[in-house]
Design brief:
Distance between the termini: 73 Å
Order of helices and strands: EEEEHHEE
Strand content: 15-25%
Structural class: alpha+beta
Bound molecules: zinc ion
Largest sheet: 2 strands, antiparallel
Radius of gyration: 28 Å
Oligomer: single chain
Helix content: 10-25%
Shape: rod-shaped
Number of helices: 2
Length: 103
């Protein structure tokens, strides 16, 4: 007779659920999985970067994604070649001197 590691009661063949080489009741197993899923951090969020290299992955790991999404800094700023004022890469001309910007 097999005893459920979760509740300690006998597990009948029809209701057994194998997990970690142990046999649980179907109900106990469901509770166990729910608890485990609730307690463990997410492996990754869909919008996070995934690398094949494990070391790369750990560098970019975020335990939980913020609800509001990540703060994405402005792609990059460029500087006017004439007056060296900062300009957005989407700008065609310098807002300060009107110089044509090259991205
Ligand atoms: Zn059980
Ligand atoms: Zn300029």
């Amino acid at each position: 007779m097999v005893l459920c590691p979760s509740c300690g009661k006998a597990v009948f063949f029809a209701e057994r659920q194998l997990y970690n080489q142990k046999e649980y009741h179907q109900i106990c197993y469901n509770i166990l999985i729910k608890q485990e899923n609730a307690s463990k951090p997410k492996t990754f969020a869909i919008h996070e970067q995934i690398f094949c290299n494990v070391e790369e992955n750990s560098k970019f790991k975020y335990p939980l994604a913020p609800a509001g999404g990540y703060y994405v800094p402005d792609a990059k700023t460029i500087n006017c070649t004439k007056c060296s004022k900062e300009a957005k890469p989407t700008d065609k001309f310098c807002t300060s001197c009107g110089n044509k910007l090259v991205v």
